[in-house]
Amino acid sequence: MMIRSGCKRLFSSKKNGSVLSSSWLLNRNNNQINKGDNDVIKRSPSSSSAAAAAAAAAYHVSSGGSMRGLVFWETNKPLTIEEFNMPRPKAGEILIKTKACGVCHSDLHVIKGEIPFSNPCVVGHEITGEVVEHGPHTDNKTIQRLPVGSRVVGAFIMPCGNCSFCSKGHDDLCEDFFAYNRAKGTLYDGETRLFLRNSGKPVFMYSMGGMAEYCVVPANALSVLPDSLPYKESAILGCAVFTAYGAMAHAAEVRAGDSVAVIGVGGVGSSCLQIARAFGASDIIAVDVHDEKLQKAKTFGATHTVNAIQEDAIEKIRIQVIGSYGGRARQDLPKLVKLAESGIFNLANAVTRKYKFEDANKAYEDLNKGNILSRAVVEIM
Length: 381
Description:
- By secondary structure, this protein is α+β, with helices and mostly antiparallel strands.
- It folds into 2 domains: about 65-240 and about 330-380, Quinone Oxidoreductase, Chain A, domain 1, CATH 3.90.180.10; about 255-315, 3-Layer(aba) Sandwich (Rossmann fold).
- The chain is about 30% helix and about 25% strand.
- The protein contains 12 helices and 21 strands.
- A hairpin with a 6-residue loop joins strand 12 (about 195) and strand 13.
- The radius of gyration is 21 Å and the shape is globular.
- The relative contact order is 0.18.
């Protein structure tokens, strides 16, 4: 089997072998959150600080606060941090206070003009954060699954849940995601949720536009993140790990004893190695042109390495090739959270660099220079 890494495209095959408003108040003495006059949600003492933070964020939103976001304006120009009006979710959508966002090559492809995308836009598409607000008319099932204050992780493929593919469980082929977000830079009513504070100018969204202090995400793209997993490292579950899992589980259908070759062992490729190991692959071959990355690949599960500059990788690896774009958010993301929680997938080892939000532009510069092994994350909390 060969996997060519990158969240835009993976090649693989098998070889033998209700709306939150300012009426939400925190009762610190009773460890409760009151909604309006009657409804009370009990909170354990350990969750009081989280509830307090949620209440504070909710007040900031309801009072018409602003936020900052990282904007791509035009090809090969530095990204800039701009002030935005607070984004507002619509039905079936959730406003997230972003805690961390991964630094992915797909963002870099957009920045360099290698992937056509509407601009100006906010990049960033693998995030963790905290639920702040539900869009009007959001169904109760979603509100119960992801209540205000919940810790969440978001997938870059954001399924609408209603198209012909989503109705069959094929979230990775969601028609609305590709027709609206990838083709137009909007959510599924054809509108962005991002507007500059001073001019009101609309700014497009690459997935949820995660390189921002807040972002709006369709609820189907979110999964609960347990307290045991850190915000920063867990951001990569939404793309690097998510894409790798999609290739291994759905496209390649890896089984115990299979042989796997991964070509390119960056953020997605190194995640493929860990997923292949978790699935019980016997021979796991890492192919790259950088010896440092190949050495690191051994810690992710590679049993063999090939430097494609020094050796003919094609002669060493004969394969059939099939394509894969990513995973299926509603099915796969909760599984990835469990893999990480159990330690089978090592998040700490997968994230090799961390940047502050103010240094996000440098993160992409370092990525472009090849200075990042595996994955980097920007801390936005």
